[in-house]
Write a structure and sequence with these properties.
4 strands, Aminoglycoside 3'-phosphotransferase, Chain: A, domain 2, single chain, two-stranded antiparallel sheet, 200 residues, 8 helices, mainly alpha, two-stranded antiparallel ribbon
Amino acid sequence: MGEIVETCEGLEEKVGLRRGSLRKEVERVMSCLESNMETENIVLCHGDLKPSNVMVEEGEKIVKLIDFELSGVGWRGFDLYKMFRTGGEGREENMEAFCASYLNCDDSSDSPCSTELTSLLVEEARLFEPVTWLEAGVFFLYAIGEGREGLTEEEEGEWEKEMEGLAKDRIGEYLKCVEGWEGRVEDWRNRVNEMKARGS
């Protein structure tokens, strides 16, 4: 995200930010994550895990993921939260069930994980809400200057207006949920450390 932000400098005003403030927000988020997340939180990620990139075969119980161009090593909480960010009704229950399955938990007494571990993973995923909005805002700002090949002047204007609107919306969502975020991340880290100290 940091490298792309450099290409967005000068575009922040389009989404109501002061010049250079987007870079500061990205640095703030990355610093907090790097201080509080451990290597166990970094996994091979889809990068754009969302319902529209999950296909279910009719009549089969086969789930397939598509759209892997953003895949790579990343924060698992980012991938998990992005899947449920706009989940609507039943989102919380689905996220909890998904996280339990991710951890290979089930209702049996010999399950390798606990309710506490599932709860910590759900909380970890929720902590990435501002990150998912910031990433999307940066993406749409970046897109203002991209994807114009073959467009007429009128279409370019429409493209820029659409990308500006999407970027402004996503940055607005980020600003709504980032208040007190670092404290929530540190509280989560302390809970993880307490659980590790107990040997859970």
